[in-house]
UniProtKB/TrEMBL annotation:
The chain crosses the membrane at residues 369-391. GO terms for cellular component: plasma membrane. It is an enzyme of class 2 (transferase). One of its GO terms (molecular function) is protein serine/threonine kinase activity. It is found in: Cell membrane. It is a single-pass membrane protein. One of its GO terms (biological process) is negative regulation of fatty acid biosynthetic process. Its EC number is 2.7.11.1. Residues 19-279 form the Protein kinase domain. It catalyses: L-threonyl-[protein] + ATP = O-phospho-L-threonyl-[protein] + ADP + H(+); L-seryl-[protein] + ATP = O-phospho-L-seryl-[protein] + ADP + H(+). This is non-specific serine/threonine protein kinase.
């Protein structure tokens, strides 16, 4: 989505006689997100207002309402809460929890690649939220940094469940389409347009790669070219793009992004279990994920209806015709190797302004301190035991 702080035609409107539209936070090809107010409960909310072209589409509205009800039943700290849905005039809309903070995309733009323990801190709630959805039979279909929100309190939440499915069933959309964001699509989404929980797992695997390296694994001259590459190219290990990535994270990404869905984690719960194994093996410390400082949500809260605008271009959820997919092979792509390490940025060596080596040495110091105390306790226990034995052996002489 593109984020703006400017006056919108909908600003000041009251939807369904209850929800006041305040400042525009972000806009994209299918919808716009606003800061709003529930006038009945006097509660700040986020309003996702769909493009007016969907209002007259019965297929879309049926799916839109069905998906909203299904998501509203989900309860998990890793999911943005759904409060209400409706149609006001020419605009279908969703009423959601307002997360004061920003997106994971904005955090990556501010701070760059993350160290492993920060990646784990992001993944735990993401996989937890997805696991709750997968257990209920729901699939997100568009996992990407723009759809992951980080609150000022360090909470990480997934947004936009069900929208891709609703748009896919709209009459205005061809039956032969791929919906999603090119960089994160699973091979089966590109091939058939269909997916299940393992498609979300693939997208999370791409997300892990991006969090560790600062970029997605596939590049190309167009979104379609990027989408096509995963059909016959494996995602490379993150360690080939940036130094210091542990082998366990390479393995996690490899399993999550296997081209054959049967070779992936079956769902988010299974991937979450493996993540916990990785955290234990690497002894990763706890980390509180920081919200981005210069986010669109923060700006909307402080500028009101200011016309001063800044624009940030993000990856869009798009509609791709499968018959538009280019035929890429060694002859037609100019021999270009999309896995060429020269295309990856050099390692920044920093996260949140702190050298990555400091995280490593902090963990080493913690281990040394723990080892010191273990040795001290064992030594004291040994001395106490020796003293007790000596006293017991000499007790008759003392008496």
């Amino acid at each position: 989505m593109e984020t703006y702080q400017q006056q919108s035609p909908l600003t000041g409107a009251v939807l369904d006689g209850r929800y006041r539209v305040d400042t525009l936070i972000a806009t994209g090809g299918m919808s716009a997100v606003y800061r709003g107010l529930d006038l009945r409960l006097d509660r700040p909310v986020a309003l996702k207002i769909m493009d007016s072209r969907y209002a007259g589409d019965e297929h879309f509205m049926t799916r839109f309402q069905r998906e909203a009800r299904a998501v509203a039943r989900l309860k998990d700290p890793g999911l943005v809460a759904m409060y209400d849905q409706g149609l006001d005039g020419r605009h279908p809309f969703l009423v959601m929890e307002l997360v004061e903070g920003g997106t994971l995309r904005e955090l990556l733009a501010e701070r760059g690649p993350m160290p492993p323990h920060a990646v784990a801190a992001v993944l735990r709630p993401v996989l937890g939220g997805l696991a709750a959805a997968h257990a209920a039979g729901l699939v997100h279909r568009d996992i990407k940094p723009e759809n992951i929100l980080i609150s000022d309190d360090g909470e990480v939440k997934i947004a936009d469940f069900g929208l891709v499915r609703a748009v896919a069933e709209a009459k205005i959309t061809s039956t032969s389409v791929i919906l999603g964001t090119a960089a994160y699509l699973s091979p089966e989404q590109v091939a058939t347009g269909e997916t299940d929980s393992r498609g979300d797992v693939y997208s999370v695997g791409i997300l892990v790669y991006e969090l560790l390296t600062g970029r997605t694994p596939f590049t190309g001259d167009s979104s379609l070219a990027v989408a096509y590459q995963r059909m016959d190219r494996d995602v490379p290990p993150p360690s080939t793009a940036i130094r210091g990535v542990p082998r366990q994270f390479d393995d996690l990404v490899q399993c999550a992004t296997a081209r054959d869905p049967e070779q992936r984690f079956a769902d988010a719960a299974e991937m979450a279990d493996q993540l916990e194994t990785v955290v234990r093996e690497l002894d990763l410390p706890h980390f509180r994920v920081p919200a981005p400082k210069n986010s669109a949500a923060h700006t909307s809260a402080t500028t009101g209806t200011s016309s001063a605008a800044t624009t940030v271009v993000h990856d869009h959820t798009k509609v791709f015709g499968r018959d538009e997919l280019p035929v890429l092979d060694d002859e037609h792509d100019g021999g270009h190797d999309y896995h060429d390490e020269d295309e990856y940025p050099s390692e920044t060596g920093h996260f949140a302004g702190i050298e990555l080596e400091h995280f490593y040495w902090a963990r080493q110091r913690a281990r040394r301190v723990l080892l010191f105390w273990v040795i001290l306790v064992i030594t004291l226990a040994g001395l106490a035991a020796a003293g007790a034995w000596t006293l017991g052996a000499n007790l008759p002489n003392l008496l």
